[in-house]
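Reopening this one. Same input as before:
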Amino acid sequence: MHRSMIPLFAASLVTLGCAASYPVPAQSLADAQSAERSASELGAASNPRAQLFLQLAHEEITKAGVAMKDGDNERADSLLLRARADAELAIAMTREQGARTEAQKAMDQANAQQTTNVNQGVGR
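Same output, byte for byte:
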């Protein structure tokens, strides 16, 4: 190898090495943990459908921690993105169930009021 090519070769290796490293996914970790915490606080654990996704999010966050310890930040980031999505799905399912419950209460109240009105002769 020519002497003039050695610095170019070394620079190429350094550039390649820098491109191969993946930063620690600190923000992804914070986002996933925040979504998991929100799902828990909303009561996802008491909703059977949401509970599954909350559990998946928890497991993925745990696996991401192991991947980060092993230096596999790219895999950790991928796991954390999925964990966040699963936790957000648990949040949506929990909110949906709450909305359905409130809608059913409103329907029950409306039906009860209608029955009361009919019994009292109102609305004839």
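So the earlier flakiness isn't reproducible anymore. For the record, The chain is about 80% helix and 0% strand.
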